[in-house]
């Protein structure tokens, strides 16, 4: 299940909130301007499905979100056991950065952790299959797919040239717990 942990930016060791309750989670995210929806991720994704097959399986949802929020292109990010350059791919998103457009992602399968740095707080959201998250452009954030990544996500873009990141250079990400591929249900 999707999980939210909220920290003060200066205290990664002591979460202020940790919840897997969807109502609490959606409420907290809505208050901060983050869009979070649960879609049904019921279309099976075979090991060898290509991006076109994945986009076609979710075409109605993809078209609706593009029409409602002005996204103009999509791609599929997929990192699974056996993917090339896993270490490089994980490192690409591990430092705090921003984008000039929304970061809108739908998890078709698997999981990963987003860390959103909002004012003085860090929101850690472990996303799983069926989660749609959209973070406004300019939001400081990072993403950890974990040491043995397994996820497929549809990414929505406004800029025609796709993914572009601006590093903040803050170093904050290294002070927070990474993602080990599971959800910590003890907090
Ligand atoms: C879950 S999609 C890959 C991560 C990504 O695109 C991004 O911008 C992370 O911050
Ligand atoms: Fe990002
Ligand atoms: Ni899988």
What does this protein look like?
The structure is a single chain. The chain has helices at 22-31, 51-57, 59-69, 86-92; strands at residues 3-8, 17-19, 35-38, 73-79, 97-98, 103-118, 121-128, 131-135, 140-144, 150-157, 166-167. The chain has 187 residues and is α+β, with helices and mostly antiparallel strands. The model has no long low-confidence stretch (mean pLDDT 92). The radius of gyration is 16 Å and the shape is globular. Strands 1, 2, 3, 4, 6, 7, 8, 9 and 10 form a nine-stranded antiparallel sheet that branches. Helices cover 19% and strands 35% of the residues. The structure holds ligand L3FJYLFB, fe (ii) ion (FE2) and nickel (II) ion. Residues 109-110, 150 line the site of nickel (II) ion (NI).
Concise synopsis of the structure shown:
By secondary structure, the chain is an alpha+beta fold. The chain contains 4 helices and 11 strands.
Could you say how many structural domains there are in total? 1
Shape call: globular
**Low-confidence segments:** none
Radius of gyration from CA coordinates: 16 Å
Could you please say which CATH topology applies here?
Jelly Rolls
Give the count of helical stretches.
4
Largest sheet: 9 strands, antiparallel
Intertermini distance: 14 Å
Order of helices and strands: EEHEHHEHEEEEEEE
């Amino acid at each position: 299940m999707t999980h939210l942990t909220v920290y003060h930016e200066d205290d990664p060791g002591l979460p202020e909130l940790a919840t897997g309750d969807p109502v609490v989670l959606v409420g907290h995210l809505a208050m901060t301007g983050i869009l979070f929806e649960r879609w049904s991720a019921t279309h099976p994704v075979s090991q060898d499905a290509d991006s076109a097959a994945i986009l076609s399986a979710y075409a109605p949802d993809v078209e609706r979100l593009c029409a409602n929020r002005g996204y103009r292109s999509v791609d599929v990010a997929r990192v699974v056991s056996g993917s090339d350059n896993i270490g490089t791919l994980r490192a690409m998103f591990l430092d705090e950065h921003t984008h000039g457009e929304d970061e809108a992602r739908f998890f078709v399968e698997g999981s990963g952790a987003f860390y959103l740095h909002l004012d003085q707080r860090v929101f850690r959201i472990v996303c799983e299959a069926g989660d749609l998250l959209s973070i406004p452009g300019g939001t400081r954030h990072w993403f950890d797919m974990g040491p043995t990544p397994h996820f497929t996500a549809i990414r929505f873009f406004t800029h025609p040239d796709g993914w572009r990141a601006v590093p903040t250079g803050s170093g904050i990400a290294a002070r927070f717990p990474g993602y080990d591929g599971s959800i910590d249900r003890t907090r």
